[in-house]
Amino acid sequence: MRPAVAAVLAATSLLLGAAPPGQAPLPERMADTGGGTQLITAEASDTSSTTGTVTWWDRRDGRWVEAGSAAARFGAKGLTEGGSRTQGTNTTPTGLYDLPYAFGIEEAPDGTTAPYRRVRQDSWWCQDNESHSYNRWTEPLAADCRATEAEHLVTYGTQYAYAYVIGFNYAQPVRERGAGIFLHVNGQGPTAGCVSVPRDAMRRILAWADPGRGPHIAIGTTSGPTAITRY
């Protein structure tokens, strides 16, 4: 094979999230994958990037195997360490997170087994730091959650056609850390802190994910303090 052709193939392999020849698949190189047998990786080149790659993986016969891959978008201000993130910075939090449940304005794709909640006219996601419903779905809008500090989910017809809740700051929410971080369908550009993929990829991810296999999502960069392999 000519060197130029080999270089192109190697670059393409990296873009798609596959390991180059001689290197173990990405999950094999990570410090933790969540303990399950399914994993989503969302990788950007560095913390200033607003684009990257989402890859979903299955663990089979003791090895991680790529199940699918798609181009991804991140926050308009790039990525930042999840443990020190500040709300309203338009950054995507790096780290390893569970995936509590999926939701969408449209019906769940065929084959979806994850818990799936349909968005209705009175469905909101509270981001009000003063509310008892901070970083929670509220239906209708909680009395102590200001509408100006919440997302009216049904108004995001493109992005929330299909979405997966990322368990960032979810189990025990820390005020001012951030709320409403999802894996969802692409909008017109970078996100406000979520991870987004094309519509078809989101449908494939939902049909693939099996809650019985403990899927998690790891978000990070290729190298440095926020390297995805550190999580």
In short:
The chain has 231 residues and is mostly beta strands. It is built from two helices and 14 strands; from the N terminus they run αβββββββββββββαβ. The chain is globular.
Describe the model.
The chain is mainly β. Helix content is 10%, strand content 30%. It is built from two helices and 14 strands, in the order αβββββββββββββαβ. The chain has helices at residues 3-15, 199-208; strands spanning 38-44, 51-60, 63-73, 79-81, 92-98, 102-104, 116-118, 124-126, 136-138, 150-152, 163-165, 182-185, 195-197, 216-221. The longest helix has 13 residues, at 3-15. The radius of gyration is 18 Å and the shape is globular. Residues 1-17 have low confidence and may be disordered. InterPro entries: LD_TPept_cat_dom (IPR005490). This is L,D-transpeptidase. Residues 1-18 form the signal peptide.
Q: How would you summarize the topology of this molecule?
A:
Blueprint (H helix, E strand, L loop, with lengths): L2 H13 L22 E7 L6 E10 L2 E11 L5 E3 L10 E7 L3 E3 L11 E3 L5 E3 L9 E3 L11 E3 L10 E3 L16 E4 L9 E3 L1 H10 L7 E6 L10
Parallel strand pairs: 1-14, 4-5, 6-7, 12-13
Antiparallel strand pairs: 1-2, 2-3, 5-14, 6-11, 8-9, 8-10, 11-12
Separation, N- and C-terminal Cα atoms: 36 Å
Number of helices: 2
Structural class: mainly beta
- The low-confidence runs, each spanning 5 or more residues with pLDDT under 50, are 1-17
Record field, number of beta strands: 14
Query: How much of the polypeptide forms β-strand, as a percent range?
Result: 25-35%
Calculate Rg over CA atoms: 18 Å
Question: Biggest sheet: strands side by side, in what order?
Answer: 3-2-1-14-5-4
Main beta sheet, described? 6 strands, mixed
Give the H and E element order: HEEEEEEEEEEEEEHE
Q: What is the average per-residue confidence, as pLDDT, rounded to a whole number?
A: 93
**Quick one: overall form?**
globular
Helix content range of the residues, please? under 10%
